[in-house]
């Protein structure tokens, strides 16, 4: 999730117009006279595990969940309805006007912090850095230093590829220098340069980008006291790389928690092809305070997460929340503009995995930075009656005023039976059946 991904900004307003058109017909009251959702289908003989509910703290209509940060800002409780977060805010020109619609801002502009806080005191605000690259100066991530500068000032910080000469640039961005993130001095510099001023400016968290469990940059090693140190094989799948990511998250979280105004560590965690049960992944999750997952249910917009992979991913998101760690799901789509099917897939899948502290964002590819809220997203689903379960070959979850249905199959459509009368998010009425194509979702109101 690159801070600099502002391409196609001229198309941004078209995305918003499309979203409004797709969802504007939503009726928050839902349909009339329907039977409660638990009558819609028989349950699977192997239901999903019951996840213990985290008990929120409520003051009037506002509820929060304690975070893992000592004396840190609590998370907004997300058990009821749909909860959104904002991925960057380049195109947000009146943050005070939209703050109430969001639980969290990934990479909030320093000049907008006070405005967000003025109208939503509970909103979680994070300052953006790349976990292993030069992230410029505080308040100006574009102020990178050159390779010659780092080779002169901290030659042992530069991380190289296996030719021992080419820095391990990410995405061919040869103006952004990669660092040896195993070096404690690098972490200390990151805290002093970014975290301390961010803490003083009212931020709640560090949004650490590119925390990938795979060595996607072909990194091999660095020079220490003029001698080459080969740290990695250069291969994508490298246990040493994962172990070093764990070391960095552990050090950074400890440093952030120790600040006078403690901060959360919220990485954009790139799991890639690593198993969701990988022990190192579990330890990394244990040493962060929340997760942003740019891959989401669309694998960075490249394809849909389907079949058993979808089920395992839902359970993983549940388990992270069980540890009092929020989960923020980004869903990118190759479509431009987004379709109603895109939005239903993102929302219905999110609703299956949301326990108490999860939120969702969706956009076309890399179309970050803008307000995605429409009134339709304030639909009153109520609270969940149960966890996800399987029936009629698809997955269901019952809410006080709605049902969420997902068909995660990569190849098969299913027509399922309903009881009662429902409307979808576009206000269309449904009778006794609904057909779900492969990798599709449906939210029905009653």
Features:
446 residues, alpha/beta, TIM Barrel, 4-stranded antiparallel β-sheet
Model description:
This protein is α/β, with parallel strands linked by helices and 446 residues long. The protein has one domain: Alpha-Beta Barrel (TIM Barrel), CATH 3.20.20.70. The chain has nine helices and 22 strands. Helix 5 packs parallel to helix 6, helix 6 runs parallel beside helix 7 and helix 8 packs across helix 9. It is globular and about 75 Å long.
The helix content is 10-25%
**Which residues sit in consecutive blocks of at least 5 with pLDDT less than 50?**
4-50
Characterize the biggest β-sheet. Answer: 5 strands, parallel
Q: What is the correct CATH architecture?
A: Alpha-Beta Barrel
Tell me the structural class.
Answer: alpha/beta
Strand content is 15-25%
- Counted up, domains total 1
Secondary structure elements and pairings:
Blueprint: H1 12-23, E1 57-59, E2 62-65, E3 75-76, E4 84-87, H2 95-98, E5 102-106, H3 113-119, E6 124-130, H4 147-153, E7 160-161, H5 184-200, E8 205-212, E9 219-224, E10 227-230, H6 239-257, E11 264-270, H7 279-286, E12 290-293, H8 307-322, E13 326-333, H9 340-353, E14 358-364, E15 389-391, E16 394-398, E17 402-407, E18 414-417, E19 422-423, E20 429-430, E21 433-436, E22 440-445
Parallel strand pairs: 4-5, 5-6, 6-8, 8-11, 12-13, 13-14
Antiparallel strand pairs: 1-2, 2-3, 7-9, 9-10, 15-16, 16-17, 17-22, 18-21, 19-20
Helix pairs in contact: 5-6, 6-7, 8-9
């Amino acid at each position: 999730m690159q801070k600099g991904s502002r391409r196609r900004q001229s198309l941004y307003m078209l995305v918003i117009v499309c979203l409004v058109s797709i969802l504007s017909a939503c009726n928050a009251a839902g349909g009339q006279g329907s039977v409660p959702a638990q009558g819609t289908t028989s349950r699977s003989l192997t239901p999903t595990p019951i996840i213990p509910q985290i008990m929120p703290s409520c003051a009037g209509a506002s509820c929060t969940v304690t975070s893992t940060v000592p004396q840190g800002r609590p998370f907004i409780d997300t058990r009821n309805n749909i909860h959104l977060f904002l991925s960057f805010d380049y195109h947000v020109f009146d943050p005070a006007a939209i703050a109430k619609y969001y639980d969290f801002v990934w990479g909030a502009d320093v000049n907008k912090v006070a405005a967000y806080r003025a109208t939503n005191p509970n909103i979680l605000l994070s300052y953006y850095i790349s976990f292993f690259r030069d992230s410029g100066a505080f308040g100006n991530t574009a102020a990178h230093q050159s390779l010659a500068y780092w080779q002169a000032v901290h030659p042992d910080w530069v991380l190289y590829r296996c030719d021992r000469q080419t820095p391990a640039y990410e995405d061919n961005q040869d103006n952004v220098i990669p660092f040896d993130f195993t070096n404690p001095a690098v972490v200390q510099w990151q805290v002093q340069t970014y975290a301390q001023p961010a803490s003083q400016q009212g931020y709640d968290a560090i949004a650490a980008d590119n925390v990938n469990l795979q060595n996607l940059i072909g990194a091999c090693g660095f020079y220490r006291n003029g001698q080459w140190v080969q740290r990695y094989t250069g291969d994508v799948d490298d246990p040493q790389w994962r172990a070093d990511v764990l070391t960095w998250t552990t050090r950074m979280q400890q440093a952030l928690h120790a600040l006078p105004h403690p901060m959360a560590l919220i990485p954009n965690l790139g799991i890639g092809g690593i198993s969701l049960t990988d022990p190192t992944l579990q330890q990394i999750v244990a040493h962060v305070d929340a997760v942003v997952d740019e891959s989401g249910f669309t694998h960075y917009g490249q394809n849909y997460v389907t079949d058993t992979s979808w089920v395992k991913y839902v359970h993983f998101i549940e388990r992270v929340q069980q540890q009092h760690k929020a989960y923020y799901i980004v869903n990118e789509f190759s479509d431009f503009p987004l379709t109603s099917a895109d939005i239903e897939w993102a929302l219905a899948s999110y609703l299956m995995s949301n326990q108490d502290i999860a939120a969702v964002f969706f956009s076309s590819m890399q179309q970050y930075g803008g307000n995605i809220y429409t009134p339709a997203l304030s639909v009153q689903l109520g609270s969940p009656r149960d966890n996800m379960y399987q029936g009629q070959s698809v997955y269901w979850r019952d809410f006080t005023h709605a049902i969420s249905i997902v068909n995660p199959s990569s190849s098969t459509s299913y027509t399922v039976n309903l009881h009662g009368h429902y409307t979808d998010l576009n206000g269309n009425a449904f009778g006794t059946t609904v057909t779900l194509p492969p990798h599709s979702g449906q939210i029905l109101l009653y």
